[in-house]
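Hi U.,

Before I forget, here's the chain from the pilot set. I'm dumping it here mostly so it's searchable later in email.
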Amino acid sequence: MCKSCGCHGNPIVKETIIVEGMTCGNCTAAVEKAVLGLPGVMAAKADVASKNVKVEYDRQKTAAEEIVQAINAIGFEASPEPVSFIGKIKAAVHSITH
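Structure:
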C-alpha cells in the first residue's frame, strides 16, 4: 500500500483529458466511444462546454498517453490536463517508492 502518494495500491485512476474540437453531441459520443474501446477503461464522460473528457481506467491495462492517442486518431486534439504542483510531487514520490 502506498500511503505517501495516496494511491493505496489502487490501479484505478480518474483523469481529465483536454479535448479541442468537440462541437456537438456527436463529437462527445465519438470521443467516449473511442476511449471506452480501450482495455481497462471503465467510464468516459466527454463535455463540449468544458472541452474535456473525464476518464476512469485501470492504469495497469492502459495509460493516459494511449487515451490521448485514441482521441487524436479520430480527429480531435487531446492532451492530458496540466498537473498541479502537488500532483507533480505526489507522482515523483510514487515513482521513487515503487
